[in-house]
């Protein structure tokens, strides 16, 4: 990362039982997720970056611009950020259109084109004249996102934007957030305690606990890092980037190339070359010493074991690299401790992975 | 022989005891008296001596005469009314709320022109010069001292010149407060208010310049059969009461 | 002729009272709003001490307030110093003096509802405004004021109505000057004192009707505004 392409921060401030004490550089593009248990300081960190909180000690440089330093604090209203809160917090005295345009600089005049673009992307066309209390939770949150975008931010901050919504609404909104990620050249910092959301959209992941940063890196790397707690979750998974190389229209199977192998996924038609995120659950991966071709499991990828962690007294999680040379993407396999010992598996062993099910993270719309 | 002496001594003793004890031995009654606010201090002293002398309890209420007048007409529980003027007791007699011919003057108010500034008021010259911004008088609509003040100013031909400088206190007490707080440089107040004051400067307005401020008392119908009420009326007309009244700066009817 | 005089006796206090109530309300809205804002948002430890001082007129008898005002407005107090600027000795017995008295007396009735409205709004709307490039000034006028408008309305109505009914304080510092300090409540008192029952009834009755209309309309407006907000 060059200086111009990153967001560098350092914050120290009391947080109750412990202090927030973080320092990190994150990429100034894509979605960076802040993940950790409740109360670990993720929201406080986000608020420090936004300028809503003033940390006792704080430094912040965004794309080479100093927003905060020793003896200098740029207040929130002069930082080019957009902020989406957990509760939409729309202005009740303004209708949707006025809410949307509150932060936009009328001097620059958002063109009709820009306005329609964002309105369409977020599906707000039909509700522009409504008052906030006539909107559903999902509609309100979409307006909140749109409102943040209309202020033309250089950095979008989202603080658990979905956690106040029920499951159907979450699923309704997630595509809109994914679209943001794809369509706008806008770095996003996304706070969540829900790994599922993060798996959908994050490119970069920062793990926090008790006010400190535990680990940070690309999503898949963190997910499969044997030294981090993520590998031992009940629903541990790894998100892989795949691009479509073939589509079997007769059987409705899409073939994706991932780093180290190919994955077949049932799906409706997708164009060749399209990139998708594929999620592989640890519990959906089995290991065998032989290449078992006669099986309903179509995804058989040779791989190399690089680590193993005891998940509980009866199960272990194996970390593997795909590819015969063992140099591809990392995935996880959850197997019984008995099978590990019975098969005589060990670090550096070459095995075949059988991947029973692969989720296509992005839904069709 | 011994018995006769004993009886005589015992009778004497009984007689003496009876003289001292009898006042309290008679049934002690209570009388409720409405008193014009300006008469507060003399009334309190009178009530105390009244109890010592007669054993009866005089319970005093202080306030504006106008208010008492209205309340008495609405059957307020007073037996005697000591007003600040003579009109209201007369009206109560006429309207049947007081015993017939029951009103009499118990005190005559003396008007004083007073200022907190020493040497400021010597005589009527200060009014003629008009070298001040505010002059305080009691509200003539409700207080006879206010009526008197206006009479004096008219008699001295200064009323028109001073009219715009007049401020009215809603009671003689407030009138005095305006002067005492120096918000008004001088004011027409009651002599009784400055009896104990050695500061400031004042002019006792000659009686010939204003109609006597006769303060009348009246026994109300509700007190007609009240022993304590009747006793108080008697007391009020007596010399002990008169001395108290004079002591507090009022005049006695019949004397200048 | 008689009716002309009478109407002067009745109209002048009415006019004076309305003038006093409106000026007091306007001054209190201007002065009370920043005060209410500070009380709502400050973290200073002595904030509630200030709040208590503002609220003192709620519990003090008006005569006590009037007494201290008499001293403060007089030649030995700040009022006298101010009055000397235009050649007067004292602020007592004057409309400006009455205005000052009314401002103190009605302050809690204006400041409290506005403060409550600001507090009810919470921090979030202003944080949102800040993240949308609104300077604190713009955020105040475009977000805080509209959201707190029921509080402003309540404060204005209460302040106005309370000043109309003011009696004790005016009695202490007014001096009963027609056209300057003889407000409606004092006029009614005078009419009662001089047994002019008919006029007293007219004025007093009018005040009762006015008070009723004020309270009633205030409730209606508040209800509408709350419905619009929720």
Overall description:
The complex is a heterotrimer of chains A (365), B (256) and C (230). Chain A is α+β, with helices and mostly antiparallel strands. In chain A, 21% of the residues lie in helices and 37% in strands. In chain A, a hairpin with a 2-residue loop joins strand 13 and strand 14. The two termini of chain A are 34 Å apart. Chain B has a 5-stranded mixed beta sheet, with helices on both faces. With 230 residues, chain C is mainly α. Chain C has one domain: MetI-like (MetI-like fold, Orthogonal Bundle). Chain C has helices at residues 2-41, 47-59, 62-73, 78-83, 95-121, 124-131, 136-147, 149-164, 168-173, 184-193, 197-229. Chains B and C meet through helix 3, strand 7 and helix 8 of B and helix 3 and helix 10 of C.
**Count of extended strands of chain C:** 0
Structural class of chain C: mainly alpha
What's the CATH H-level superfamily name of the largest domain in chain B?
A: Periplasmic binding protein-like II
Q: So what's the overall shape of chain B?
A: elongated
Please state the overall shape of chain C, judged from the principal axes of the Cα atoms.
Answer: globular
What is the beta-strand fraction of chain B?
15-25%
Strand content of chain C: under 5%
Number of helices of chain C: 11
Structural class of chain B: alpha/beta
Topology pattern of chain B, helix = H, strand = E: HEHEHEHEEHEHHEHEEEHH
**The CATH top-level class label of chain C:** Mainly Alpha
Topology, number of strands of chain B: 10
Kindly state the percentage of residues in helix of chain B: 40-55%
Summarize the structure.
The complex is a heterotrimer of chains A (365), B (256) and C (230). Chain B is built from 10 helices and 10 strands.
Sum up the structure in keywords:
heterotrimer, A: alpha+beta, Rossmann fold, OB fold (Dihydrolipoamide Acetyltransferase, E2P), 2 domains, 5-stranded antiparallel beta sheet, 8 helices, 21 strands, B: alpha/beta, D-Maltodextrin-Binding Protein, domain 2, 5-stranded mixed beta sheet, 10 helices, 10 strands
């Amino acid at each position: 990362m060059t200086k111009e392409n990153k967001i560098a921060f350092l914050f120290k401030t009391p947080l109750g039982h412990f202090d927030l004490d973080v320092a990190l550089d994150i990429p100034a593009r894509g979605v960076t997720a802040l993940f950790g248990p409740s109360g670990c300081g993720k929201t406080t960190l986000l608020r420090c970056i936004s300028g809503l909180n003033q940390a006792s000690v704080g430094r912040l440089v965004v794309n080479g611009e100093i927003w905060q330093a020793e003896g200098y604090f740029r207040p929130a209203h002069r930082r080019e950020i957009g902020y989406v809160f957990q509760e939409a917090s729309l202005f009740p005295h303004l209708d949707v259109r006025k809410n949307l345009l509150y932060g936009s600089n009328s001097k620059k005049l958002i063109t009709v084109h820009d306005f329609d673009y964002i309105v369409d992307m977020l599906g707000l066309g039909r509700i522009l004249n409504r008052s906030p209390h006539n909107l559903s939770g999902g509609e309100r949150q979409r307006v909140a996102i749109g409102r943040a975008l209309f202020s033309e931010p250089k950095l979008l901050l989202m603080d658990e934007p979905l956690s106040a919504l029920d499951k159907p609404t979450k699923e309704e909104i997630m595509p809109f957030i994914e679209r943001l990620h794809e369509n706008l050249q806008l770095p996003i910092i996304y706070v969540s305690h829900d790994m599922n959301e993060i798996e959908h959209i994050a490119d970069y992941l920062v793990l926090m606990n008790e006010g400190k940063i535990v680990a940070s890196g690309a999503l898949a790397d963190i997910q499969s890092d044997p030294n981090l707690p993520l590998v031992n979750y009940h629903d541990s998974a790894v998100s892989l980037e795949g691009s479509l190389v073939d589509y079997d229209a007769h059987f409705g199977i899409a073939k994706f190339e991932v780093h180290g192998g190919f994955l077949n996924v049932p799906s409706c038609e997708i164009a060749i070359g399209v990139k998708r995120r594929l999620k592989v659950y640890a519990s959906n991966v089995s290991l065998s010493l032989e290449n078992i071709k006669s099986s309903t499991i179509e995804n058989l990828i040779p791989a190399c074991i690089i680590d193993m962690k005891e998940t509980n007294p009866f199960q272990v999680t194996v970390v593997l690299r795909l590819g015969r040379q063992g140099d591809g993407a990392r995935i996880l396999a959850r197997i019984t401790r008995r099978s590990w010992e019975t098969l005589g598996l060990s670090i550096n062993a070459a095995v075949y992975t059988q991947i029973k099910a692969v989720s296509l993270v992005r839904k069709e719309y | 022989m011994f018995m006769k002496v004993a009886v005589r001594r015992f009778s004497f003793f009984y007689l003496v005891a009876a003289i001292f004890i009898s006042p309290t031995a008679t049934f002690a009654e209570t009388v409720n008296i409405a008193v014009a606010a300006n008469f507060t201090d003399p009334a309190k002293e009178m009530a105390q001596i009244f109890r010592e002398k007669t054993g009866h309890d005089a319970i005093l209420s202080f306030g504006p005469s106008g208010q008492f007048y209205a309340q008495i007409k609405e059957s307020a529980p007073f037996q005697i009314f000591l007003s600040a003027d003579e009109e209201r007791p007369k009206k109560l007699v006429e309207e049947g709320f007081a015993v017939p011919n029951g009103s009499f003057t118990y005190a005559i108010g003396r008007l004083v022109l007073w200022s907190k500034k020493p040497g400021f008021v010597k005589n009527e010259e200060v009014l003629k010069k008009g070298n001040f911004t505010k002059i305080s008088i009691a509200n003539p609509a409700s207080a006879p001292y206010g009526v008197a003040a206006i009479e004096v100013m008219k008699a001295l031909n200064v009323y028109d010149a001073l009219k715009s400088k007049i401020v009215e206190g809603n009671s003689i007490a407030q009138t005095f407060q305006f002067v005492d707080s120096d918000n008004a440089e001088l004011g027409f107040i009651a002599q009784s208010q400055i009896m104990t004051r050695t500061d400031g400067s004042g002019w006792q307005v000659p009686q010939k310049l204003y109609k006597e401020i006769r303060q009348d008392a009246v026994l109300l119908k509700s007190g007609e059969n009240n022993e304590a009420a009747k006793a108080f009326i008697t007391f009020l007309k007596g010399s002990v009461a008169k001395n108290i009244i004079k002591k507090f700066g009022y005049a006695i009817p019949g004397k200048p | 002729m008689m009716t002309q005089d009478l109407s002067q006796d009745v109209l002048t206090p009415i006019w004076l009272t309305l003038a006093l109530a409106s000026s007091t309300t306007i001054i209190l809205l201007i002065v009370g709003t920043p005060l209410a804002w500070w009380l709502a948002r400050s973290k200073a430890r002595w904030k509630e001490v200030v709040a208590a001082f503002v609220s003192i007129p709620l519990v003090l008898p008006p005569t006590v307030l009037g007494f201290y005002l008499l001293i403060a407005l007089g030649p030995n107090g700040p009022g006298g110093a101010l009055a000397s600027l235009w050649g007067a000795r004292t602020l007592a017995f004057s409309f400006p003096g009455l205005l000052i008295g009314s401002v103190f007396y009605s302050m809690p009735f204006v400041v409290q509802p506005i403060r409550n409205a600001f507090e009810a709004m919470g921090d979030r709307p202003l944080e949102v405004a800040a993240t949308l490039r609104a300077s604190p000034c713009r955020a105040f006028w475009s977000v805080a004021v509209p959201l707190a408008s029921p509080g402003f309305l309540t404060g204005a109505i209460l302040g106005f109505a309370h000043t109309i009914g003011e009696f004790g304080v005016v009695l202490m510092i007014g001096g009963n000057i027609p056209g300057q300090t003889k407000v409606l409540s004092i006029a009614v008192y005078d009419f009662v004192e001089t047994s002019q029952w008919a006029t007293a009834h007219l004025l007093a009755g009018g005040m009762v009707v006015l008070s009723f209309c004020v309270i009633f309309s205030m409730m209606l407006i508040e209800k509408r505004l709350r419905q619009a907000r929720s």
